[in-house]
């Protein structure tokens, strides 16, 4: 059993020039770069409340994953197996790809509530998990624990949506933001000694900017994309996606030029996440691809 959980040498014979790019593509779906653009796209083009719930559960389970990595300090498979250099010297268990991607795609399926979405999400999660073993950066135990924590995260978040907690969820952002600051302070006090404690500050910055921007959107800027532009229904969503991603990338570049260091990263993510939920929608209104 120990060999099954920790020995990934069996994957070597299956590696080839065709499969490697495929699994690299699936593993990219679990990295922050993809999630950073995917979540705002859902917010801009689909359902802003559902995207906000999805963002919160993804961020919270990311905090749990980082904490447990540093607490257990379980090493990754030997360097001889690795095809993914992005992991650097981080720890292995639980697999962040398995946990975060499991939460992201399965909660999205829960929000969509369509059979085809459950099937698609399950396939994506399975392929992402397999990609981590194929690329030699996680063993089977890392994946199992990550998926188990994803299930726990989903169940706990589902409980938080109970009608009895509706009053708490409906609190204005001016109450939620201090709670996030308190969470950040608590985690900084109990965090195991590791560089990953810095990541918790950045995750909290993302949550704070997103929630405050979403609150302002609800108070002042409710909108919908125009049904048709130039006689076509697809133009407004395409324009919104292009303008949103371009403005987010431009703002990220500007902030990277202006500020640096830990505090600079915190300010940058705070502003970027605020732009995702308020700045970009305001821009959609300004260029007239959205209306009240």
Characterise this structure.
- This protein is mainly α and 292 residues long.
- The chain folds into two domains: 167 residues, no CATH class; 122 residues, no CATH class.
- It has twelve helices and two strands.
- A two-stranded antiparallel ribbon has the order 1-2.
- The chain is globular and about 60 Å long.
- The termini are far apart.
- The model has no long low-confidence stretch (mean pLDDT 85).
Quick summary:
The chain is mainly alpha-helical. It has helices spanning 2-6, 19-28, 32-45, 48-72, 96-112, 115-134, 140-160, 166-169, 173-190, 197-220, 235-258, 261-286; strands spanning 224-225, 290-291. The protein is 71% helix and 1% strand.
- Helical percent range? over 70%
Mean pLDDT: 85
Strand order of the largest sheet: 1-2
Domains counted in the coordinates: how many?
A: 2
- Beta-strand portion reads under 5%
Order of helices and strands: HHHHHHHHHHEHHE
Number of helical runs?
12
End-to-end C-alpha gap: 59 Å
Number of strands: 2
Shape: globular
Biggest sheet layout: 2 strands, antiparallel
Radius of gyration: 20 Å
Estimated structural class: mainly alpha
Q: Point out poorly predicted stretches.
A: none
Task: Chart the SSEs and their pairings.
Layout lengths: L1 H5 L12 H10 L3 H14 L2 H25 L23 H17 L2 H20 L5 H21 L5 H4 L3 H18 L6 H24 L3 E2 L9 H24 L2 H26 L3 E2 L1
Antiparallel strand pairs: 1-2
């Amino acid at each position: 059993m120990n060999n099954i959980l920790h020995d990934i040498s069996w994957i070597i014979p299956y590696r080839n020039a065709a499969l490697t790019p495929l699994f690299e593509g699936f593993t990219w779906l679990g990295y922050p770069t993809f999630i950073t653009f995917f979540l705002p796209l859902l917010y801009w083009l689909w359902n802003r409340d559902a995207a906000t719930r999805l963002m919160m559960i993804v961020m919270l389970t990311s905090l749990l994953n980082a904490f447990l990595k540093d607490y257990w300090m379980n090493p990754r498979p030997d360097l001889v197996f690795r095809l993914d250099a992005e992991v650097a010297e981080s720890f292995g268990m639980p697999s962040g790809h398995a946990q975060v991607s499991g939460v992201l795609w399965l909660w999205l399926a829960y929000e969509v509530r369509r059979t085809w979405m459950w099937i698609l999400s399950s396939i994506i999660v399975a392929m992402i998990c397999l990609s981590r073993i194929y690329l030699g950066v996680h063993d089977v135990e890392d994946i199992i624990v990550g998926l188990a924590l994803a299930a726990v995260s989903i169940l706990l978040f589902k409980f938080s949506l109970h009608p009895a907690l509706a009053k708490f969820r409906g609190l204005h952002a001016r109450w939620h933001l201090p709670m996030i600051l308190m969470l950040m302070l608590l985690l900084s006090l109990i965090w195991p000694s590791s560089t990953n404690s810095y990541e918790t500050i950045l995750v909290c910055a993302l949550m704070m900017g997103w929630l405050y921007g979403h609150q302002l959107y609800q108070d002042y800027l409710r909108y919908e994309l125009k049904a048709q532009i130039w006689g076509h229904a697809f133009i407004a969503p395409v324009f919104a996606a292009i303008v949103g991603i371009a403005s987010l990338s431009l703002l990220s570049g500007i902030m990277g030029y202006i500020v640096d260091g830990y505090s600079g990263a915190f300010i940058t993510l705070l502003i970027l996440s605020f732009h995702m939920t308020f700045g970009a929608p305001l821009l959609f209104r300004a260029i007239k691809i959205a209306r009240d």
